[in-house]
Amino acid sequence: GMDLAKSCEETGPATPLFFILSPGADPREDTEMLGKKLGFTVDTGRFHNISLGQGQEMVAEAALKKAARRGHWVLFQAIVKWLGTLGELLEPYSEESHPDFHVFISAESAPTPEEHIIPQGILENSNKITSEPPTRMPANLHAALYSFDQDTLELCTREGEFKGILFPLCYFHTCVAGRPKFGPRGWNGRYQFSARDLAVCIAILCNY
Q1: What is the CATH number of the domain that holds 80?
Q2: In this structure, are 34 and 106 located in the same domain?
Q3: pLDDT tens digits, residue range 124-162?
């Protein structure tokens, strides 16, 4: 797993944290959980989550300006071809920003090798972090179960039934997440089945 808290301590206004994503990885969950512990949340207005893409540059620039001045966290979720734009946006804020200002970047692979160029500025100035997905069934199941903390396990008033169904859901998720290696057989389309999908399943289970 990623030691996000330690990596975060080593970053600052001039050093973004750059997640290089493997299939199915979703650093948003981990970043939000760490932010929650340290008081950087969407609810308090101190955490900004932006998906960079067509027409989002203005939104990104406004969030950066505010975050650099007030010491907020910003998570940019992008595909590689938008990193050039992001590199240019970040430059003015690497110096003389609020010491609590942190930038997190996650990037998925670009669709073609020609577009797969990570700007030198981002490569040189950031702390890179990657999470390799576990490869075997027990490791995957372990990772799925341990992605839920004690608070989540105690969310539901009918605790026995809730935990009883949570385990098979994690088991099902593990089976499904391991299937893409067989290619498109049995699927209508390729799909990642990320940790966020599992979290949504558990939230629905809790509601029911």
Answers
A1: 3.40.50.300
A2: yes
A3: 888 888 766 556 788 888 888 888 878 888 888 888 888
Say if residue 16 is in the same domain as residue 53.
yes
Q: Is the pLDDT of residue 108 over 50?
A: yes
Examine the fold and report which residue of 88, 113, 131 is the final residue of a domain before the chain moves on: 131
0.85 exceeded by pTM: no
Q: Spell out the SS3 assignment of the chain.
A: CCCHHHHHHCCECCECEEEECCCCCCHHHHHHHHHHHHCCCCCCCCEEEEECCCCCHHHHHHHHHHHHHHCCEEEEEEEHHHHHHHHHHHHHHCCCCCCCCEEEEEEECCCCHHHCCCCHHHHHHCEEEECCCCCCHHHHHHHHHHCCCHHHHCCCCCHHHHHHHHHHHHHHHHHHHCHHHHCCCCCCCCCCCCHHHHHHHHHHHHHC
